Amino acid sequence: MAKINQNYNKLPKTYLFSEIARRAKTFSEKNPEVELLKLGIGNTTLPLTPSVLEALHRGVDKLADVKTYTGYGDEQGNTSLRKAVAAWYSKRGIELEPTEVFISDGAKPDSANITSIFADNSVIAITDPVYPVYQDSNIVAGKKVVLMDCTKENGFIPHVPKEKVDVIFLCSPNNPTGAVATKAQLKTFVDYAIENKAVIVFDAAYSEYISDPELPRSIYEIENANKCAVEIQSLSKMAGFTGVRIGWTIVPKDLVIEGTEPGEVNALWNRRQTTMFNGASNIVQEGAIAVLSEQGQKESRELINYYMANAKIIKEAMEDLGLKVFGGENAPYIWVKTPSDLSSWDFFDKLLNECHVISTPGAGFGSKGEGYIRLSAFGQRENIEKAVKSIKKNLKI
Ligand code: MLT
Q1: What's the domain range around 155?
Q2: Is 151 part of a structural domain of the chain?
Q3: 101, 77 contact by CB (below 8 A)
Q4: CA distances from 85 to 80, 81, 272, 294, 339 (A)
Q5: Same domain flag for 77 and 37
Q6: What's the predicted TM-score (pTM) here?
Q7: pLDDT by residue (tens digit) across 154-163?
C-alpha cells in the first residue's frame, strides 16, 4: 500500500505566502470595495526591459524556423549562457569555468533540490528567521535541521554553529531581514566550513540590491569559498524574471566533501540535473544572455534603483511612525519591529484591517521572526505611496 512521506506532516499546514494570499482573499470577499495595497510577497511588478524583450522575441522566432529550431537543450544550460554567466562573474574578479555553472529554472527549486546530493544523516544549519524553502525542503528530505539565531543583537547575521554541522544555508542580502553579511562575517563561515568539511549553500538572489561597494555580492569574494561553497543565483529579482523563470547554481570543481575528490561534487550535481531536469526554456535562455550583457545590466540597474527608491520611501515612513526598522538599504526588504510587542500576525491583521496593507508576518519565517513584519519594496511606486500614506493615516498605535 502506498504511504505518504510522513515528513510532510512536520511542515506548517500551508506555505507562508499561500496563507497570506488566503487571508487577503477572505478580506477582499468581505470588503469587495476596498483596494488592497501589497507589500507582502517579493513579487516584481515592473515590465521586462527592452533588450531582454528583444532577445526573448528572437528566441521565439528561432523556434518558428526549421533551420534555427531547437528541441531539448543541454540539461545544464546552453554553453553560450554558461559562458555569459562565467564572464559576468569574471567582471567582478571571480574566475569560474562555464562547466561549473548549471542553469536552472530559478533559485527556489535549486535551493530545495540541492539537499538531494547530501547524505540522509546530514545535519543542516539554517537561520531563524529563514526563507521557508530551505527549512521545509530539508524537513521533507528527513534531514536534521539546526537553527542559527538572527536577532537584532547580532544584526540579524548569525554566528557560525556551535555544534558540528554538514551543510549551512546562508542568504545575503537576506530574505526576510534585509541584513547583508560583511566579508569578515562570511569569512567566519568559510573558515568553519573548511575546518569542519561542511558545505555552504549561498543564496545570492538579491546580490544586485547591494550598493555599498564594501559588501560582498558573491560568496566567492571570500578566499577558499570555492573549496566549500555552492552559490545559487536567479534573474527573478535582478531582472524581473519572477514569472519568466531562470537562475543558476555554481558548483565549483574545487569543492570537496567527505570522501570526494575535486570535481566529484560538480559531477554529482551534473548527474542530478541530467536525470531530473530537462534544461531551462530555450527562449528564456536567450533572454538571460541579454540580461547579462552590458546593456542588459544597465537596464536591470534601473529596475533595481526603482525598487530601492521604494524601499527608501517605506523605510522612512516606518521610521516617521517611530517604529524600529532594519534592512531596506542594500536589500529590497524592510524588517519592522511590531509596536507595543504585538505578535507578527496581530500586526499583520492590524495593517490589513486598519490600513488595507498586506505585509508578511515575521513569525512565518521562524520563531525568531516573531514580533516583526517584513515589507517588500517590489510594488509600483503609486501603490507604495498609497500604502505608506494609508499606514501613516490609519494605523492606530
Ligand atoms: C518572498 O517574498 O520571500 C519571495 O518572493 C519568495 C520567493 O522568491 O520565492
Answers
A1: 50-292
A2: yes
A3: yes
A4: 9, 6, 21, 12, 44
A5: no
A6: 0.97
A7: 999 999 999 9
Q: Binning pLDDT at 50, 70 and 90, where does residue 324 land?
A: very high
Quick one: 233 and 310 in the same domain? no
**Cα(239) to centroid of ligand 1, in Å?**
15
Ligand 1, atom 8: closest residue by C-alpha: 42
CATH of the domain at 380: 3.90.1150.10
The b-or-e profile of 343-360 (16+ CB within 10 A means b, else e) is ebbebbbbbbeebbbbbb
Are the beta carbons of 331 and 209 closer than 8 angstroms? yes
Q: What is the pLDDT of residue 179?
A: 98
Query: Distance from the CA of 330 to the center of ligand 1, in angstroms?
Result: 17
C-alpha cell at 320: 516617521
Cell of 30: 468581505
> Ligand 1 center to residue 245 CA distance, Å?
13
The answer to whether position 1 is within a domain reads no
* Pair 324, 357: CB distance under 8 Å: no
In 3-state terms, what secondary structure has residue 154?
A: coil
Other residues' Cβ atoms within 10 Å of the Cβ of residue 224? 14
20-67 pLDDT, tens digit per residue, is 999 999 999 999 999 999 999 999 999 999 999 999 999 999 999 999
pLDDT of 93 strictly over 90: yes
My answer on whether 83 and 224 are in the same domain is yes
Q: What is the mean pLDDT of the chain?
A: 97
CB atoms within 10 A of CB 72: 8
Cell of residue 270, nine digits: 551534473
Helices and strands in the chain: count of H runs, count of E runs: 12, 13
CB atoms within 10 A of CB 251: 24
Alpha carbon nearest to ligand 1 atom 6, residue: 42
